[in-house]
Each structure stands twice: as structure tokens, then as C-alpha cells.
Amino acid sequence: MTEDDKLVEMFFQENPIEVADDGFTERVMQSLPELEARPSRAWKLSRIWTFLCIFVGVAVFIADKGWVVLYSLLKSWVSNLHIDFSSLSGIQWDTHSLMMYGVGAIVLLLLGTYDLVTEN
């Protein structure tokens, strides 16, 4: 906060300004619509649409064996780094370990979906 801001704040604390609104604020507050306690229909539809899109994306990923594409992409990136990864040669990238990564990705997607749905 600058010195000018402090001076202005001190001035208004010492010299408060009362503006007569003749009940205007109260009338405006009463004319505002009540907030709904439950989520709106549009909000529910957007959450359903988000869930369906995520579900379809995961289903297409599984149906088209997307992990093969991801593995090939990762392998090409690593091979283009020109770094010695001989210590990683002991890792076997078989279907079982890829399945574990896929399950982990699905769990993360479901947690993200849950977070979106429960968001206020």
C-alpha cells in the first residue's frame, strides 16, 4: 500500500460519507431473484455431457488400443533424446505393465470427473 493510499484511507475513516438512498438498496435487494438451493438444469446437463465425453474418450482409447500409440510415441521421444538409458533396459514393457498404466490413467480420469461433478 502506497503512502497516498494510506492517506486516502485515513481521510475517509476520519470523515465518513453517508449517502441517503431512501431505501433504494433494500428495494434492489428484495427485487433480486432468490438463488436456487439445487443446481440448475443447465449445470446438470453440462456435467452429464462432460462425463459422457470422458467416457467415450476412454472407450475409444481402449477400443483402438491407444496405449500402443502412446508407447510408440514415448519410445520415439526417448530415442531422440540421445541419452544413455541402458539402465532402463531391464524394464519389460509388456501388456501387463501397460494395463497397470491404463488402469492408473482411468482412475485419474474418474477422480477428475468426480472433482468436476462435485465442484460448486
Protein architecture, described:
- It is elongated and about 70 Å long.
- The model has no long low-confidence stretch (mean pLDDT 80).
- It has 5 helices and no strands.
- Helices cover 68% and strands 0% of the residues.
- With 120 residues, the chain is an all-alpha fold.
Topology of this structure?
Blueprint: H1 3-14, H2 24-31, H3 41-63, H4 66-80, H5 95-118
Helix pairs in contact: 3-5
| Measured distance between first and last alpha carbons | 33 Å
Percent range of helical residues? 55-70%
Rg value? 29 Å
Largest beta-sheet characterization: none
Number of helices: 5
Class inferred from helices and paired strands: mainly alpha
What's the pLDDT, averaged over the residues? 80
Task: Give the overall shape.
Answer: elongated
SS elements, strand count: 0
Give me the strand/helix succession: HHHHH
Low-confidence stretches: none
What fraction of the residues are assigned to beta strands by DSSP? under 5%
Quick recap of the structure?
The chain has 120 residues and is mainly α.
List keywords for this structure.
single chain; 120 residues; mainly alpha; 68% helix
